[in-house]
Amino acid sequence: MSSPLIPGSLLQSADKVLFLSCMDIPAYIPLQNYLRALAEWYPHLDIHIWVGRENSRDESPLSLSGWLNACSFIGKAYTRTETASQLKQSVTEAQGEEYPLLVSLAETHVCQYINLAREISPAGFVVGLKEQGLMSLFHRTAHKKLNAAVPLHGGGKHLPRSGEIYADWFACLFGLTVEEEARSPFIDIPLSSLHQADVLLKKWGIDRIGEQVVFINISNNVYRGYSPAHAVELVRALRERDSYRNAWFLINAPLEDTDWIKQKILLHCTDSYSFERVRFLRLTEPFFQFAAVLSLCDLLVSTASNAVYLADALNIPVIMLTHKREEKRVPLLSVRRAILVAGKNGVNGDDLNRVMDSLGEKGAVG
């Protein structure tokens, strides 16, 4: 293997590094394995993260900022970059750090992040992804601001979110090797959050002893999630199976739609038996509290969402419904996941049979 693009002398002398990207949770899950390995290889190197304005605007409990701010190997996270004033303030704050090393992993808006890195640190060593072919001719001015570059695979379009790509990048940049067994997704949930989640479930009457817990992502938008009517059908169908007869069901109700969804559930509910074990989870809990509750579940049924990737990292079986136009954007999930492509009109009643078929006779995803 050739020498890494970042000089070893710089890695030894630098006290901090800033990674810039328009990453989201699906992208960060495989990336964190390499950031953790980098922190172990260079314990003196303080790792900072810049989250691009495309994803910094997410204020939900499942936003990336809630995770980054608690990661033990992340020294600082710039997550307030949405508005012009926030961006200016964050740039000024970052300039004060005088970063000796900056790495742009932006797969889209490549030139924008190269320019941003150079604005933050005019004298720093800047590495970034570089378009190939004809696109490189149009972006020569930005590319000249790089001290070193890594080829951008696929021109930045529908780039797979897999550990193999990060493996190539970190090997080229740092000479860092992460063995395949160390690339498994993970979430380090604080014990306090796990305890709170356990207390919450017990408060609802869920002791999880010989009982399955099913999490259903629900929305009032048929294109983005299971509708209340579909959730009713799914709960009723699952409770008819022996493996889920005594199961509990947690229905994710977005805060602004909670009352509306409850009314819809009651409207479609014709028997109290099917829904005596249904509980509503309102997305007001902090990131790790939500992840802790999810970690205590045995199955997630959802359309493509951050919850899917968190469940995958927690090794929770997932049945995910996605659209044909989004299929290529879906990161590779583990073998215990079933990915079903919904019709052009979104999730509908026909998908219930496909969900049930994915569970198999014994209730296992396959």
The beta-strand count equals 12
Quaternary structure: single chain
* Overall pLDDT metric: 79
Which percent range describes the beta-strand content? 15-25%
Basic shape:
elongated
Instruction: Characterize the main sheet.
Output: 6 strands, parallel
Radius of gyration: 22 Å
The proportion of residues forming helix, as a percent range, comes to 25-40%
The SSE string, one letter per element, is HEHEHHEHEHEHHEHHEHEHEHEHEEH
- Spans where pLDDT lies below 50 across 5 or more residues: 154-160
Strand order of the largest sheet: 3-2-1-4-5-6
What structural category characterises the helix and strand content?
A: alpha/beta
Q: With helices defined by DSSP (H or I, 4 residues minimum), what is the helix count?
A: 15
Amino- and carboxy-terminal Cα gap: 40 Å
Task: Give structural notes.
The chain has 366 residues and is of the alpha/beta class. Helices cover 38% and strands 17% of the residues. The chain is built from 15 helices and twelve strands. Helix 10 (191-203) packs across helix 13 (287-295) and helix 11 crosses helix 12. The radius of gyration is 22 Å and the shape is elongated.
